[in-house]
Design brief:
Blueprint lengths: L7 E3 L5 E3 L16 H10 L14 E2 L11 H6 L11 H13 L4 E5 L2 H12 L5 E4 L4 H9 L3 E4 L20 H11 L6 E5 L12 H14 L2 E5 L3 H11 L8 H10 L3 E5 H4 L5 E5 L2 H14 L10 H13 L3 H4 L1 H15 L12 E5 H4 L9 H13 L1 E2 L1 E3 L19 E5 L7 H16 L7 E5 L5 H4 L1 E4 L3 H13 L4
Parallel strand pairs: 3-12, 5-6, 7-8, 8-9
Antiparallel strand pairs: 1-2, 4-10, 9-10, 11-14, 13-14, 15-16
Helix pairs in contact: 1-16, 3-12, 4-5, 4-11, 6-7, 8-9, 14-17, 16-17
Length: 487
């Protein structure tokens, strides 16, 4: 096991730069299309980066979900998968990995994280229930509401201060948690959910101490604690760096400590172990049996859960690799580098750097674009036009409408530039910083968006929008003025 300084090397000039602790042995060709073709591509995609064809994308920073680089050990493990509908040895290898890494005895495989959310919601949520959490995720909210539940975000006052040095913005406010239980009654709270790390507010982690306090309150009232472990590796890494008690503790021990505080742990393997699939695990046979038949109904048999056994093999190896510091520190180190460089240039970013990606504060970046015109979505489209970089809107487009048809404005408007594990190089990261900075210097050219086709559920996936003016054409003209015929 390497020490915690292994991914950042101090150069002779005193600067710390993240160094890739792996070598590249297989590559995939990228294409950087001319700016006119990028404008045409985003127009055809309805100004929604989800609807871009990857042939028109240079750096795909939409998500880290299913896009992480797999290790040589993961790929090789897929060759000895046991192709069996029931009782596959691949499943038992995965079950062993879950027991040794997460410390959980019972495993239910599912095809991805949102499938786990569906199973848990159907098993435990009843109409009228409320579910306290540090922050919601889009699919989590949708599944819980479909089953009659209401999410209650009880984050601390620090959570929405986008620029600060508070290390654990993903913490739950303990006083608010107690007040919520007293108000609604423990019988209407099936569980408390903690997300590691909070996706929609900048990938911010929670501390072990905060989770211990949540566990204490939950035990006092007899309420379950459910952990969304989809970004647990990165949360663990940030605990190691920021929580004094754990500075000299291995990431494997920290991970086991965190999971040990939860009754149920669920995860998207597309994030947590660099593969596809997901799982739900627990040490309670009673809880396991409450969910088991739903897995058979919605996913598949209990030893494959809708996942290829080859992916199950890779999942098992990926879980073990989550306890390797050189693996889980790679993405946070590159994110921190990008955040610090953009912050130095005056670009409004979420600080301190968190997990999953570099998050840009779109409401401050485009302070002339009203929130009703979706500044985070507009910024995502504008950055793609000037760079070929595909990021993801995490703001009001990712929100919903109320009963009267009005937008429920998001707490924050963020452009997320995801850093999948071991995918991008430092020079590519420097390109990202350069193009974001250029766009910031020319931000007055960017205008808003409006919907032309708006799905009723999870509209950010398939919705189509259009500019409220001819700002994309003006942006292209300025880009060509400054860069000539450059890409």
């Amino acid at each position: 096991m390497t020490d915690s300084s292994s991914t950042e090397i101090k150069f002779s000039n005193g600067q710390k730069i993240p160094v890739e602790l792996h070598k590249v042995r297989m590559v995939q060709k990228l294409y950087l299309k001319p700016v006119e073709e990028r404008l045409d591509a985003i127009e055809k995609g309805g100004y929604n980066t989800f609807l871009l064809d990857t042939r028109n994308v240079f750096l795909d920073m939409l998500t880290d979900s299913g896009t992480n680089a797999m290790s040589d050990n993961q790929v090789s493990s897929m060759l000895h998968a046991d192709d069996a509908y029931a009782g596959s040895q691949s499943f038992y290898r995965m079950e062993t990995a879950v027991r040794e890494v997460f410390g959980k005895k019972y495993l239910l495989p599912v095809h991805q994280g949102r499938a786990a959310e569906n199973i848990i919601s159907q098993a435990f949520i009843r109409p009228g229930d409320v579910i306290p959490m540090n922050y919601h995720f889009t699919t989590t909210k949708a599944h819980m509401e479909l089953n009659g539940g209401e999410i209650l975000e009880i984050f601390t006052d620090e959570a929405l201060k986008l620029k600060s040095d508070f290390p654990f913005k993903g913490n739950i406010d303990i006083d608010k948690l107690k007040a919520t239980i007293e108000k609604h009654g423990k019988e209407h709270i099936p569980f408390v959910r903690m997300e590691a790390s909070t996706n929609l507010i900048g990938g911010q982690p929670f501390s072990i101490q905060n989770m211990r306090e949540v566990r204490k309150v939950a035990d006092q009232y007899g309420i379950l604690v459910v952990l969304d472990a989809s970004l647990i590796g990165e949360n663990v890494w940030l605990v190691k760096k920021r929580e004094e008690e754990f500075r000299n503790v291995s990431v494997g021990e920290i991970l086991a400590t965190m999971c040990g505080l939860a009754d149920i742990v669920y995860f998207s393997s597309r994030k947590v172990s660099s593969s596809r699939g997901g799982g739900i695990c627990t040490n309670s046979k009673e809880l396991y049996l409450k969910m088991r038949d739903l897995v058979v109904l919605f996913e598949g048999f209990t030893t494959y859960g809708g996942i290829s056994v080859r992916e199950i093999e890779a999942m098992a190896v990926g879980l073990y690799e989550t306890t390797d510091e050189t693996v889980i520190s790679q993405s946070p180190s590159f994110i921190e580098y990008a955040v610090n460089e953009l912050d130095r240039l005056g670009v409004p970013v979420v600080t301190p750097a968190g997990a999953l990606g570099c998050h840009i504060n779109a409401m401050e970046f485009l302070d002339h674009v009203p929130q009703s015109e979706y500044p985070a979505g507009a910024l995502a489209a504008a950055l793609y036009i000037v760079s070929g970089i595909r990021g993801m809107e995490r703001g009001t487009i990712s929100s919903v409408r109320d009963a009267d048809g009005n937008d429920v404005l998001a707490d924050v408007e963020l452009l997320r530039l995801a850093f999948p594990r071991r995918v991008f190089t430092l020079s590519q990261t420097m390109f990202v910083v350069d193009r974001v900075n250029w766009l910031y210097q020319n931000r007055e050219l960017v205008g808003g968006l409006e919907f032309t086709d708006e799905p009723a559920v999870l509209r950010f996936f398939n919705g189509r929008l259009k500019p409220t003016s001819d700002w994309p054409q003006k942006l292209v003209a300025r880009f060509k003025q400054d860069f000539g015929e450059s890409l």
